[in-house]
Amino acid sequence: MFHVEHAKNIESLLVGGIESIGLTLPGDAIEKFIIYFQELSRWNAKVNLTSLVNEEDIVVNLFIDSLALALSCDLSQSRSVIDIGSGGGFPGIPIKIAFPQTNVTLIEPRMKKTAFLHHIIGMLSIDGVSVKAQTIQEYTQRLSSGSSYDLAVSKAIKPEDIFPAVRAVLHPESRVCLYRSYSLGHLYSYYDMELEREVAYELPYGHGSRMLSILKQAIVPCDL
User: Fold this and answer.
1) pLDDT digits (tens, 9 = 90+) for 28-62
2) Which residues form the domain of 55?
3) I want to staple 203 with a disulfide (CB 3.0 to 4.6 A). Which of 57, 131, 163, 207 is the partner?
4) What is the per-residue DSSP string for the chain?
């Protein structure tokens, strides 16, 4: 059962963690995160949405880490984001909660997880979020021409499992942001994508270092 003290503890962890990455959120957004936590925990008892069960682990490694995207990308304006391999909604749904003007597409092929995604979107009463029960490869095969996103993000999928399909959802100014535990290092090129920059950050409450690797489409020199 979800007790009042749990909600207060989660709120405290959220507020402190969000401040640690330079963000502040209104009360209604915090309330949505508490509902998200509650439903994630309830569903996780039957559906393997995450291996994390501790309150602090979930808040920090799923919610706060997802919002760290704001350290590398300006999300204050209306943007379109595609979240590849979303699982339980990370990072796409936390981004949507914190930046409601953003349109988000969640790519997740596993039906039990997409059932949860539809459920939590309804519970949170958020618009501008769509769920695609497909792999990124399946999605791009059926994608209409001209469809593209400003940001493609992935928190749990290996780069080699994303490229080259992800290029089909990008426009020339798009960026791909990969959540990582360490730098891409010398691996600076993926299927005509090049590493633009990397942003290192510390998760709050001693949960360690993380890295955002931001890639852009490589400029192919023209033959003279």
Assistant:
1) 999 999 999 999 999 999 999 999 999 999 999 99
2) 4-217
3) 207
4) ---HHHHHHHHHHHHHHHHHTT----HHHHHHHHHHHHHHHHHHTTS-S-S--SHHHHIIIIIIHHHGGGGTS--SS--EEEEET-TTTTTHHHHHHH-TTSEEEEE---HHHHHHHHHHHHHHT--SEEEE-S-HHHHHHTPPTT--EEEEEESSS-GGGTTTGGGGGEEEEEEEEEEESS--TT--EETTEEEEEEEEEE-GGG--EEEEEEEEEPPPPPP-
Determine, yes or no, domain membership for 67. yes
In a domain, 222, yes or no: no
* Domain of residue 176, CATH code: 3.40.50.150
**144 has pLDDT over 80:** no
Percent of the chain at pLDDT > 70 equals 93
